[in-house]
Amino acid sequence: MQKEIIVIIGGPGTGKTTIIDGLLERGHCCYPEISREITLEAKKEGIEQLFLENPLLFSELLLEGRKKQHKQALQEECEVVFIDRGIPDVLAYMHYIGDAYPAFFDEACREHKYTKIFILPPWEAIYESDDARYENYEQATLIYKHLKETYESYGYNLIEVPKDTVDNRILFILGHLSN
């Protein structure tokens, strides 16, 4: 069997991390979202919201981190690796805020391919704001649209995960592997 690198995407507050945590509890190989790490590091240096203050620097750090995750996933012993957000997410967020980015962002998306992309739709009933999530629900919905457009522009066929219990969402994802 060939290595499968599966990405779970969606706007803020759609349940990505909860699903990744559930997959981890079931013994699957999973990589977490890394943007919170970058945000916390910046806060230690006195920058309250790096994405808002310097979106290009934040995005470059995120891009490098996601490229490292992709490389590590390829080297994993397990056959299936789940990742919370992929490289094209970086471009989708830059599109969302209307900022330009260097050509190497696009090159990274073309050079680092994923096997399948599962997208979680906006879901107001579960949306919650927190210290690292500054977007409101309407903004989260716009980000979802940018994510969808960006991934599709790189030729990905997105599989939308239905709004359901965490267990049923995980079963839906697992049921679509190797199909």
Automatic annotation (TrEMBL):
Domain of life according to the entry: Bacteria
Lineage, highest ranks first: Bacteria, Pseudomonadati, Bacteroidota, Flavobacteriia, Flavobacteriales
Pfam families reported for this sequence: AAA_28
Identification of the protein by name: AAA family ATPase
InterPro entries, per the entry: NadR/Ttd14_AAA_dom (IPR038727), P-loop_NTPase (IPR027417)
NadR/Ttd14 AAA domain: residues covered: 6-169
Organism: Flavobacterium qiangtangense
Gene3D superfamilies: P-loop containing nucleotide triphosphate hydrolases
